[in-house]
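Subject: mismatched residue count in predicted assembly?

I count 552 residues in my input, but I want to confirm that the predicted structure covers every chain. Input:
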Amino acid sequence: MNFDALFDHIGQHTVDGLAKGAIYALVALGYTLVYGVLRLINFAHSEVFMVGTFAVMWTWIGIGAGNTPSIGIAILLLVLGGLVGAAASGGTAVLVELVAYRHLRRKNAPSLVFLITAIGVSLSLTEIFGIFTGNGERKIQGMPTILNQSIAIDFLGVEITNLQLIVLAAAFLMMIGLDQFINKTRYGRGVRAVAQNPDTAALMGVNKDRVIVLIFALGGLMAGVAAVLWNMRYGFTRFDIGFVIGLKAFTAAVLGGIGNLRGALVGGLLLGVIEVYFATLTASKWEDVFAFIVLVVVLMFRPTGLLGESLGRARA
Amino acid sequence: MLLEIDNVTLHYGRIQALHGISLNVNEGEVVALIGANGAGKTTTMRAISGLRPVSSGRIRFNGEDITNVRADLRVIRGIGQSPEGRGVFPGMTVRENLDMGAYTRRDAAGIAEDMERVLTLFPRLQERIKQNGGTLSGGEQQMLAVGRALMSRPKLLLLDEPSMGLAPMLIQQIFSIITEINEQGTTVLVVEQNAQQALSRAHRAYVLETGNIVKEGTGQDLLHDPAVKAAYLGVA
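Triage response: the counts match. Full output below for your records.
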């Protein structure tokens, strides 16, 4: 364990971890929204993210984006990518609900059936994209580098790149927007009502199916924004990209308290920081191992996560 | 006739809970439905509000057949309910709970007016306005559930066991408020185990036993009926 490498640059590693975790947090919101309302772990959500990365990539390549364009074009591509990613991921999530889950609810299927369906949808989407993208070669697909990374802020030796700033700002803005929507608007109240007591919500005139479509759309939208940030940061995607990201985002949701929107943010950022710390300590070899050790330890000692659930039950 | 239930049966799986019940509620009335535990009172409420599908029979409201209308759409037609167990949203403030009652409405002025009216009827809710529903006492939650149902400005107000778990003084109070709500123009169908209170406040009443309506009459008639006295009023 290389403790010097960690503690000599602890500030830098924290910033790197937060930027990494912001993407997990955005994806985690989708798990947490669906779980909060339906008590369902939507394992297909990882593919909702994957579809977003492809949609953004195709858009960028389709309009002929080149490497490191001028700053104006880069912002344009970022915004366009965000819109396309949000639409593609949101649309995919809603489609999964309409095609798969809604029919199971009509039949009062047991929760195990939902879970297996979720895994089935996840595998189907993965394989469909494996077959039909990149000539079926199942390889990593690169895309233009949209942003020329540079140091935007140098604060007491902690360097924050322009990309990290964009990722963190986008994640926080989306998060604040979602939080306001859920807690302050009429539709948000409808979502919370269904989460807290579905029967009484119906007696208030809330259309449960419409609320469910809404939460899938919102979760997909967040995953779509995560997808464009991922593409900017890493510059590649692949048909099975969702698997590890999805699992880590799910870990983040559980870490913060699944069903709790702010918990998803806290869990995501924390997981990113933990990963970067352990990557530094072990020269990257054990990074993923520790992410999942964290999941197991949290489930053992605090199964409700750090902040506990809030969407469904009373806030403590 | 505001509400007309015609020969309704209802099953939970293989168990039949309602064996063809018929009852009606006229505009302006307070109608009580009394019966023992498990008689089918709450099931009848769930059939009227649409939370459980009926197996056969028809339900008509305001002249229209609503038997196959979804629960959330029945609210728009004018059925408001305070459900069994109160159904307060525990993680929402009192104000948010009341706002939920007006979920289907868009007339901001009318909503504000009704909020004022509910908070006048239940001053205790005004004191607790920023507290979460889950932190209220049983009696306060009952007031919240009734007040919330009023926020939809219903033509018909369904009250499921409004006296459940309340101290005798609070029971008196809640029934006085029910009478007041009725006098302000809302038709009320109330399901109660507390037959004494319900019958003395109701214009008419039905007695439910194991999924069948076995008796009906004015509140006063049933209050003095020997069989009802023996079974529900604890008088030999």
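Chain A has a mean pLDDT of 91. Marking this ticket as 'not a bug'.
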